[in-house]
Design brief:
9-stranded mixed sheet, homodimer, 14 helices, alpha/beta, 434 residues, 8-stranded parallel sheet, Urease, subunit C, domain 1
């Protein structure tokens, strides 16, 4: 499928974490962006390698709307869709131990498949073109994403209560074999759920496969205190001491950080993946986003799972990443909108080891969204990036393309499933567990 | 226009601040709800006063989607749309004194008219059926709202820098004459911008017209400290001592409250109108929402103006009213979703003295919205109220009806103006001031 987007505004990303917007076109050949620039400055490269002219199956008149890189949801547990709004407004421990865990224990592989598809539909409505997922049954999760044509990077939720280290290795190899849209990075759930022996096993796998390592890190104050009591070290210092970060990686949440933790993140070029909605709703705290940015630590943004959020909406996360940081610092000038949009696009793509999905540029993968600027929340056009970060929302997403294929357009999905069937499955699954 | 909504889920409001949802129908005759109940339990009242059968101009098949009361934006400065994303990420004082005030000084009455319409369009996309507005040129503001068929309650932004107390009285009388959709409640900008003499003038008008009184109250810590230095009292205690609350009223923001302030709010049945997005973005702080609820103080929710937010989106406000309170208290169980939806509907309507616009019930005004439950963020249907508060958004708003007239439906407006003309006006107005 070759698609030409014409009459567009095109969001171009600069290495200094700023953006500029040009009037122009974006040409997609197969799964690749072959041109992104001004209308009359297109390349002579209008023929493919054989010399024949490219056949444009679709030419989309963007009517002045914005083409930009898809948003990257850099931490989530997609299949938790079944627990959305199931048991909110409870203390964290009651929610997790009495409501969530007992029901997760009843999930089958098939359940996860259907619940993933519900989540993927929501990602598409939010202009999300890839997710960094952690959940049970990674092979099935990968199959669901692949069947939809979606791009998913997974990591392991390994802990003391489930599979063996051998199974983690097996999953790593299996998911990385599914196809080009699917990949797996080493990781585990968190220090507070995983024994030393098991963490050492993960560290060995990271070294064997030269993989980065990701985990829930310093999400709550209690978690950090517990780790200090158990090991005399913060989760960051402990996992570093186990040799987990030789090939990079990062942490999800990263709310309660010590000075040493910041230094370790800098030393190993680790990614801080912030999850502001979940941290609010579960009353975990507000992450030190300004300090991550000031210290040059790469920032990415994720929704966390739909049970603790409850939406899979990167627009709300972007808004909160900026504004929560402002109120944490009590300084309205402490964060710039451009940094946030950079984190949600380039930051996420790089955290997920998807360097070719980070921006709208020749040679990059066509993970692209089209944003409706002709809605009142995007007017006047004083500053389009600020409009996106501070006023944008799902209602502005006209089209979501992953790997050159349009999966969502004007409220309709092209993922091989009917919404009503997916909704029925999701309601049946949770219905079984009431 | 008589409209029958069939095959709907209908959100019914209980006096204990909870909701239940029934399958049924809502019948609107003229601007009034004449029935809201189960399909086969309709009233015999199918004829109007003359005994003739009611002619249903439209019957809308809701396909199982949700009819609920429109959201009330209980504090805003609508026409500030021209400054959306104009000068964000600055310290509050630079933003206000160097960017906002000089440009507001250049606004004409006509500018405000067009900028209001842009804001009203956005309210409609967010399922907002009335706004509590404070801005320059109230008569023109009222005309804009009235021309659109929108419902607006205004208050005065009176302070030391503009009009006289006589003009406030004139505006009060003029706006209350515009028509049934428009009203005016006494008020002034804030203690820190208004001299004692002028505040006393407002207090007299409140008493003369038996009007409630509203103002920006304790938005920032500096404001409260300043008031204590000037008068030895908090803004709440000071305004009470001037006799402003004999007929009720309330405060916008209410972030920095003393124990005495809570007592005064209880004593006079004042409304606390919370503005979480603006308080974050301007780094003002997090309001004590849980305590307002626990002490039985009526809560309402507003967006504040689009320059400090930057969206006019009550979904985001509802989400943050709950989740910010949770992180303020460091207790995920501290707030229930139902309380938030109650504040955004009943709380707002009552703060604005619109007791007939607060719920879906026979005899109430038809300020109604239709919410799409067939989107992935609303599935599964574990708890529809929690889905609305924690996962809902503008993308779920299918239809917004004000006073029995459908002003917004499936992305199209019926307000007498074309979006592109309004966008052009807004861009021209700010373009003139760059």
């Amino acid at each position: 499928m070759n698609t030409k987007f014409i009459n567009a505004k095109v969001l171009k990303t600069s290495d200094d974490h700023t953006f500029n917007i040009i009037d122009g076109e974006v040409w997609v050949k197969g799964n690749e962006i072959i041109f992104a620039g001004e209308k009359d400055k297109g390349p002579s490269k209008t023929a493919d390698e054989s010399g024949d002219p490219i056949v444009w199956e679709r030419t989309i008149d963007c009517e002045g709307n914005l083409i930009m890189p898809g948003l990257k949801d850099a931490h989530t547990h997609t299949a938790m869709t079944f627990l959305r709004s199931f048991a909110d407004d409870l203390p964290l421990s009651d929610w997790l131990y009495k409501q969530v865990f007992p029901r997760e224990g009843q999930l089958t592989e098939d359940d996860v498949y259907w619940l993933d598809i519900l989540g993927i539909m929501e990602y598409l409505t939010s202009g999300i073109t890839s997710n960094f997922d952690m959940y049970f049954f990674p092979q099935k999760n990968g199959k669901a994403s692949n069947d939809c044509g979606f791009r998913t990077v997974q990591t392991s939720g390994f802990n003391d209560f489930g599979s063996s280290i051998e199974e983690v290795e097996e999953r790593y190899l299996a998911v990385n074999e599914i196809g080009p849209l699917q990949s797996f990075i080493m990781g585990f759930h968190a220090e507070y759920t995983t024994s030393m022996e098991r963490m050492e096993g993960i560290a060995k796998l990271c070294q064997k496969y030269k993989s980065p390592c990701f985990l829930h890190n310093s999400e709550t104050e209690a978690e950090v205190k517990g780790c200090l009591e158990r090991y005399g070290k913060t989760p960051t210092a402990l996992t570093e001491s186990l040799g987990m970060y030789e090939y990079g990686g990062g942490g999800y949440h990263c709310v309660w950080f010590s000075d040493e933790d910041f230094e370790i993140f800098k030393k190993h070029n680790l990614f801080a993946v912030t999850n502001p909605c979940s941290n609010l709703k579960l009353a975990s705290g507000i992450a030190p986003v300004k300090r991550f940015i000031d210290e040059g630590i790469s920032l990415a943004i994720g929704t966390d799972g739909p049970a603790s959020n409850n939406a899979l909406d990167m627009w709300r996360e972007m808004y909160l990443t900026s504004t929560l940081s402002k109120v944490r610092e009590m300084d309205a000038a402490s964060i710039k909108a451009d940094e946030i949009l950079y984190a949600a696009t380039v930051g996420g793509a790089h955290a997920m080891n998807l360097p070719d999905c980070d921006r709208i540029e020749e040679g990059k993968k066509a993970d692209i969204i089209l944003i409706d600027l002709q809605q009142p929340n995007m007017q006047p056009e004083n500053n389009i990036v600020k409009n996106l970060v501070y006023a944008g929302g799902k209602q502005n997403v006209l089209l979501t393309m992953v790997d050159g294929k349009i999966l969502y357009e004007n409220g309709k999905y092209d993922i091989g499933f009917e919404p009503k069937d997916i909704y029925k499955k999701a309601n049946e699954i949770i219905g079984r567990m009431r």
